[in-house]
Design goal:
Elements (H helix, E strand, L loop, with lengths): L5 H5 L10 H32 L17 H30 L8 E8 L2 E6 L33 E4 L1 E5 L4 E7 L4 E5 L4 E5 L5 E5 L5 E7 L11 E7 L1 H28 L15 E2 L10 E2 L8 E4 L4 E7 L7 E5 L1
Parallel strand pairs: 1-5, 4-10
Antiparallel strand pairs: 1-2, 2-3, 5-8, 6-7, 6-9, 9-10, 11-12, 13-14, 14-15
Amino acid sequence: MNSLALINEFLGQPPNASAHGYQIDHILEFCHWFMGALFIGWSAFFIFVLIRFRKRRQPVADHGGVRSPISTHLEFSVVLIEAVLLLGFAIPLWAKRVNQFPPGKEALVVHMVAQQFSFNYHLAGSDGQFGRRDVGFVSNSNPLGLDPNDPAGKDDIVTMGELHVPVNRPVIVELSSKDVIHDFFVPSMRIAGDAIPGSLIPIWFTPLKTGTDEVICGQLCGLGHYGMKGTLVVDTPQDYQSWLKERAELRPANRQLAQRLEQFRRPVRPDLKAPANSRTLLPARHSSRRTVRLLLQPRQVRLSRSRFAVRSTLIVRRATGYKLSAKSA
């Protein structure tokens, strides 16, 4: 690593793993060294002023101010350097990232749909076409709302939390969100982009090193924001094809498992009806000794804390309708 780049390493920035990352690193290096020079310069000037204009040396204040033009020249130099950084480096680099995308045939296109608090990835199957998505099909087993009747989506690959990409191939990630504003941030790839509900925002990068990189959410998105993390795995072309084949083989089993989970989530007793303003389910033949409660929210776990122990009482549902109480001290 260049000696000038030691400041980035000192600040905890991970090593660059993308083709465009060196440009980002150069701007960060220059900005950090420039800010360090400004800090030292203004601190030295502040100390000089405290000593030069102390009360013992100059008991009567001089309201004429500074008559030397050196301060004006210093301020103009700072503004000029900042303008060069912004107009000569930052804006051209940003324009290149948002306007010069790689051709679609050469790049791997991935749809990323964020939600509280995870990342969902959607990749096209062997036909190269993405299946249709609709909010009406969204469920726990179908987080992206893929249309089960669309033939283009039969071979699509959907993963949660982990994305595999091949090395030395451009990757275009189209960002969107299901609930609030998130941010798809991969520090080692020097890339980040906001995921906004109702919008499709593309970003792209080219990984240069195989390995595992961390994906984090860069926007405060709720109470679980701290745990919204994912994994980006950069594979060799052979390993990436093996991963695609493995996901394709697991697709039927995952679909059957999702269907079973949906059936499991349905009510066991069809005669149980929930009041409109309550989460407590009572049988049609209600009696005081036959109550059924669904464990839907954490507030239905009654916790009584004492000085020495924590005692929790959980009431769960049984198919017979009898009350089942489990206590743990």
